[in-house]
Amino acid sequence: MKIYLDTSVFVKRYCEEEGSEMINAIYESDNEIATSYWTLAEATAAIDKKVTKRQISREERDFVLSFLLSDVLLRNVTFVKISNEFIEAIIEIILTNHISADDALQLFSGIVSFSPIFLASDRGLIRAAKREGFNVFDVENSEERERLRRLLVGEDEDN
User: Fold this and answer.
1) Domain that holds residue 138
2) Phi and psi angles of residue 118, each rounded to the nearest 5 degrees, phi first
3) What is the pTM of this model?
4) Is 157 contained in some domain?
5) How many domains in the chain?
6) What is the distance between the alpha carbons of residues 15 and 29, in angstroms, rounded to a whole number?
7) Quick one: which of 6, 63, 73, 141 could link to 120 by a disulfide (CB 3.0–4.6 Å)?
């Protein structure tokens, strides 16, 4: 099954946060992972921000970023390329859903990746993804993680 990860969820693979265990399990599964190329830039910024907040050192940041790049190559993550032709559609998503440009870009990338499952932790993005017809999960919510786990192992009776 193809699973789309927005940046807030993607970063959980590389920084221990609520929901990291679920993302690690997805990486170790046979499920296909998709995200936007933009996620690499956003993830780099999120990890670098931990240096400015003195949560990690520059050396730790560099190690994490090196691991991230090698990890996505080894795992063969599918990256959606955003081109100029997509900007009009992304603007329409912004105006329809009243979300940030970054969130609209993630939502559009999920749409063009044909991923039936969309993982995020931003409430506005989650609402917009539901309106677009995705099976959406907030991996920071324990009930949502359990529902996702059950779906991935074929136990989910409601979806």
Assistant:
1) 2-152
2) -125, 120
3) 0.91
4) no
5) 1
6) 19
7) 6
